[in-house]
Amino acid sequence: MRNWFAPRQTSTAGGSVRRSFKFLIRPTARQAAALTQCLEDHRQLYNAALEHRRTAYRKAGVTIRYGEQSAELKHIRADDPDGQARWSFSSQQATLRRLDKAFTAFFARVKAGRAPGFPRFKGKGRFDTVQWPKDGDGCRWDAQPGHPSATFVRLQGVGHVRVHRHRPLQGTVKTITVKREGDRWFVVLSCDDVLAEPLPATGAAVGIDLGVASLATTSDGEQLANPRHLTASADRLTTAQQALARKKRGSQRRRKAVARVAALHAKVRRQRLDHTHKAALALVRDYDVVVHEDLRIANMTRSASGTLSEPGRNVAQKSGLNRSILDAGWGVFLTILAHKAESAGRKLIAVNPANTSRACARCGHCAKENRVTQAEFACTACGHVAHADVNAAINILRTGLALRDAAEAA
C-alpha cells in the first residue's frame, strides 16, 4: 500500500540543506568552442558505452556494468590523446554513471510493470550537460580568488571561464555542472551545508488545488494566477517555427532560425520559473503546513492519439488540455515549493487526489454530479454551493491534516 504522507524533508544534520546555485558564464569564443567540443566528446562516449552494452547483451548475453566501462576509460584516453584525453577523467566517469542510472531506472520500470523506455542514443540536441563530481578534480570553482572584480571557474581542457556571479554562494561546493541552453552557457553548483533559513511559525495550514484557469487555488479561497506564458508567446513561436521549416538543413540560416526558436522557449521557461518562485514563496511565508495533490503529471499529459488500429477519442481536446497543463508548470511549481518549504522549515504533505474534486467539503457526500461545471460545485445531498477548486482544496487540506495526525500518533 502506498504511503501518501510525503513531507519531503531532506535536511541534513545541524539544520543545513543541499542547494543548487546556477550562474551564467561568459566564455570567450575559443572557450565556447572548447565547451561545445567537450559536450560532443562526452556525448560520443555516452553513445559508445550504450552501444557496448547493447552489443554485448545481444550477441553474447553478457551484461556490462559501470565498473567495467569505467576501467576501459584509461585505454580509451590513451588511444585518443587529442580527443577524449583532453577532458577530466572524473567527468567522463560521471557520464558513464549517467548511463548506468538510465539502465537502473529502466530495470526498475520493467520490474514495476510500467512502460520500460529503454535508454536511447543521444543526438546533438539531446546532450547539453557535463558534470564534474568533485570540486578540485578537473575543475575548480573561484579559480582566481584574488581577482578584484570577477569570479572564474576553471575547467580542464577549457581554461578559466568568467562567471556572472549575481548572488552570493552559500555552503560547500560538491559538484560542478556545465549546461548549455540555446546559445548561453551556465554553471550549476551543488552545495552542501547550506544553512536553512526557518521562517517564524504562523500556526496556519493550507490545502492547494492545482489547476489550469489558476495555477493554484487555496482552501482559504485565494487564487494564484496562471500567466500562461507559452500561450502569450504562441504567435511569435509560430512565426519562428514556420521560418525554421522553410530553411535548408545544414545551412547557416537554419542554424540562426533554430537559435531563434530556442531563445523564445528559453524566455518562456525563465518567465515561468520567475512566477513559480514568487508563488511558492508566498505560500511558504504564510503557512506552516502546505498540502497538495500527489499528481502523476506524466500520466495526465499522455497523448490520446492511440494507435492506427485503435485511434483515440477527443484527441484535439486532450492535446489542448495537455498543452495547458504543461504551460501551467505544475511539476516545476511543486519542485520549487518543496525546496522552499525545506529551507524555511515548513511541512509539505502530498495526498491521494482521488475524489477530492467530487466530495462535498461540508457533508462528505461524493458523486460526480456534484461537479456541475469546471468552476461550480453544488452538493446533491446537502445543497452546499462553492467554487469547485476551493471545495477541492478544503478536502485536500482535511486529508493531509488527518494523515499528519495519524503519522504523529503512530
Structure description:
Strand 6 and strand 7 (184-195) form a beta hairpin. A seven-stranded antiparallel β-sheet has the order 2-6-7-1-5-4-3. Strands 10-9-8-11-12 form a five-stranded mixed β-sheet. Strands 13-14 form a two-stranded antiparallel ribbon. The protein folds into two domains: 16-195, no CATH class; 205-409, Nucleotidyltransferase, domain 5 (2-Layer Sandwich). Helix 2 runs antiparallel to helix 3 (89-111) and helix 5 (234-245) packs antiparallel against helix 6 (252-286). With 410 residues, the chain is an alpha+beta fold. The longest helix is centred in the middle third of the chain and has 35 residues, at 252-286. The relative contact order is 0.12. The protein contains ten helices and 14 strands. Residues 18-59 form the Transposase putative helix-turn-helix domain.
Query: Any idea how many domains?
Result: 2
Report the major sheet.
7 strands, antiparallel
The proportion of strand residues reads: 15-25%
The CATH topology label of the largest domain is: Nucleotidyltransferase, domain 5
Number of helices: 10
Reported CATH architecture of the largest domain: 2-Layer Sandwich
Q: How many E-type strands?
A: 14
- Class computed from helices, strands and strand pairing: alpha+beta
Order of helices and strands: EHHHEEEEEEEEEHHHEHHHEEEH
> Which strands sit side by side, in order, in the main sheet?
2-6-7-1-5-4-3
The span between the termini is: 17 Å
The low-confidence runs, each spanning 5 or more residues with pLDDT under 50, are 1-14
Radius of gyration: 25 Å
Quote the average pLDDT.
88
In the CATH scheme, the class of the largest domain would be Alpha Beta
Organism: Nonomuraea africana
Protein name: Transposase
Family: In the N-terminal section; belongs to the transposase 2 family. In the C-terminal section; belongs to the transposase 35 family.
Domain Cas12f1-like TNB: 330-396
